[in-house]
Structure formats: structure tokens, C-alpha cells
Amino acid sequence: MVKLKFITQGKALVLRISENKERFYKSARHLLKGNPNIERHWNAGKERFSSNAISYMENNKILEDFKEIYFSLIKEHPELSAKQVAQYYSASKSADSLPSQMQDTITSRNMNLVEKYLEAVIEREKVKSGCNFEKYYYLLKKCRKLLPGFSFLTFKEINFDKCVSIARIFAKHNGYKDSAKIFRSLLGKAAKDHEINFTLSQIGDFMFADYNPRINEIDHKKPDVLNPEQLKKFLNMDISKVTPDFRNRKRVELYHDFCVFMFHTFFAPCDAIKLRYKDITVQGKIHTKRKKTHKEVEVPVDSVAESIINKYRGKSKDGYVFPIMDDKKSEKYAMKDFIFRQFRKNINCWLKHVSPEIGVDYGLYLYVFRHTAITVALDNGVPISYVAMAAGTSSELIQKHYYNGDNQMNTDRLKMAFMQASE
């Protein structure tokens, strides 16, 4: 639990943000009026100035408001660490604004203007595990570019007609589905935020899907998967001979093991790269949460996955299964998940060189192994509900993208059933 307390450091007054042994500090000295004598008039036990201090009533109110900003943040987001709480407002410096306007500034910035609330959501998502902030970041860029007067749009103005106007503007540009989905997600967040004066009843029965320019088109795009022959070639390839242009053979071996592990666990790249040994139970299962959806998954560890897990035991840092992530090194980079992004970029580059060697006519990429694992499980009769649980997705999504009559086994069965009916 993150704790807050005003303390003195030398002759300065600071707000200490702590959790266990972690300590972070926010200066309050510049907020005070009249330059009060902290050494003589500060009551450490009550965290207040005594009545003998200059402007004591006003300064005590300023400190209460300043502390309340962080207290509200902790209460609303108990998942944040002390470091994340301390850094939460650093980008906009809203918590260091003028004393008499501190609370109003936070409220105005986050709770009135849609643009400012979207900025706050982006910062909030950045401190969470996963990479979900990007979709809100791209929505912000698109809204600023396309929506007239977006910088002055308030939640009070969001109603049925306004959403229709926004939907029609989005429909004129590429990426309507994603833009509409994330904007609706933003409205959902705002409606659940008790500090925002907005409810979904303001938009009535409005549906972004009704304005999708491709509403009557059939989506023929299906996930890329390896066929049985291609999958067999990849799983059994001779690592010592494949992609000879890549000189770091240990790295190539790691790339191959990583892909094989994804296939045997349904994992997405970010789930596999951040898997730790503590997530493996004594019953021989991986029990963790997906980084993207935060859904719990429980996957049995088969002999292939187990051999990969044991292979890298003792070779990685910070308890990770694969020797890729390094927590201390990650803190040095300004970009979140920089190490993961670089690894994903490098391994996808390697996979493109592997494509012709296993007979794939497109650029192979990491997610293909997750798609293939789901397809193989379904083709072998594993119930959709179990596959959805293990893959950390929904049964509806699997039915829509994977199990819709395209697999050859069911196609052959259906043809045979029709032929037999006419005999």
C-alpha cells in the first residue's frame, strides 16, 4: 500500500510517497506563501503549521489540497507503485501548478475537456503492464487532426448528435473500426470515472457500428496460420543450418525456441517474453495473466515447453524464463518496453528469412505461431471454451476468426454428408 506523509528534508518541506522500502519525494516548498519558518513552526506529528506560522491557515489548506491529489490517485488506482504515483503527473506537471488552483487544474484538465482526459488516460495506461496506451495515443492524434474544435470539446457536449457527427468524420478516413472502437472505449472509461460529469445515457442508443462504411462488406481476412507441412518443417528444422547469414547462432537458437514455446502455450509475444518461473505451478501448469487483456490463463506445460523452460533456467535475469528482459536495463530507456520491442523486431526479421525455407509465401511473423496453435487445437477437437480460456481470449472471437467452417476437416465432412444424403 502506497503511503503519503509530509516530512522535512533539511529546511525544505516535501511529500514522501512510500511503499515498503521505496521512497520518493515531491517538494512542497514552492507552494507555500510567506516563507514560513519550517524549523520552528512545523508540527511533524500533525503534518501542519502551528498558529504562530506566517499564513498558517492558507498554507495548511495548500498542503491538504496537494496531498489530496496523490491520495485520490492512489484510491482510484491501487495497482500503482510508489514510483508510478510519484511520476504520474510529471509529464504535464499538473500537480505542481499554482496552490490556489491545484485541485481545479487537475479537475479541469482531466474531467472537463475530452482532449485532456484522453491525455490523462494515455499517461495512466503507460504505467500499467502491457502496451495498451498506443491505441489511445493514435486516437488522440487522429482526433486532433480530423475533429474541428476538438481541443475545446467537453464531455457535456457529447450526446447522440455529436457522436453521429464524429462517426461520419471517422468514416471518411481509413481505420474507422479502430477509431470508433477506441473512442467508444474512452466514453466507457469516462462514464465509470466518478470524477467526470458524464453518463452513457447522454448518447442514448447510439452505435458506432451503424456508421461503419464497410458495414455490409464481408471480412475475408483470416489469421495467417502454418499448414501441417509448414509447421512440421519449422518445428523440426536443423538450427545449425537454417538462415546461415545470421552469425549469432545462439541468438538463432533462442529465436526458434521462443517461437516453438509460443506454439505450445498459445502465448502472444509479450506474454512469452515476460513469463517468469514463479508463474509455473507445482502441478506443471503456467498460471498467469495476459499482458494485453489482463485475463487469467492456465496452460499445461507439455514435454517440449518443459524442455525449453529448463534449458534457460539460470541463464536469465529477474526470474524471467527467457534470457531477454532485464529490469535494471529497462529503466534506462525512455520508451516503455524498449527491450521487448527490439527483440520482437529482430525475431520478426529472422522469421522473414525463414519463410522460404519452410514454404511460406508471406513474411512470417511471431503471431502466426499463436494463430497456428489455436487452429491445431480446434482441428483436433479441443473444445472452443477450453481453447478460449487457455489462449486468454473469448469464444466469440475464436468462432469468428478461426472456427467458421474454413478448416478442411469439417469441409470434407460436410461434403460427405451431402453426398450420402443423395445415395
Structural write-up:
This protein is mostly helical and 423 residues long. It folds into three domains: 93 residues, no CATH class; 99 residues; 187 residues, Intergrase catalytic core (hpI Integrase, Chain A), CATH 1.10.443.10. It is 47% helix and 8% strand. It has 18 helices and seven strands. The strands form three sheets. A three-stranded antiparallel beta sheet has the order 1-2-3. The longest helix is centred in the N-terminal third of the chain and has 21 residues. The N and C termini lie far apart (72 Å).
Entry summary:
With 423 residues, the protein is mostly helical. It has helices at 38-41, 56-76, 82-87, 102-112, 114-126, 133-146, 160-171, 176-192, 228-235, 249-265, 269-273, 303-311, 327-330, 338-354, 367-379, 384-391, 395-401, 408-421, and strands spanning 3-9, 12-19, 22-27, 42-43, 48-49, 285-289, 296-300. The termini are far apart.
- SSE order in H/E notation? EEEHEEHHHHHHHHHHEEHHHHHHH
Under CATH, the homologous superfamily of the largest domain reads: Intergrase catalytic core
Helix content: 40-55%
Termini separation: 72 Å
Low-confidence stretches: 91-110
Radius of gyration: 27 Å
Domain count = 3
CATH topology of the largest domain: hpI Integrase, Chain A
CATH domain class name of the largest domain:
Mainly Alpha
Mean pLDDT level: 86
Largest sheet: 3 strands, antiparallel
CATH architecture of the largest domain: Orthogonal Bundle
What structural category do the secondary elements indicate? mainly alpha
Which strand-content bin applies to the residues?
5-15%
Task: Give the overall shape, derived from the CA principal axes.
Answer: globular
Total beta-strand segments: 7
Strand order of the largest sheet: 1-2-3
Task: Tell me the number of helical segments per DSSP (H or I, 4 or more residues long).
Answer: 18
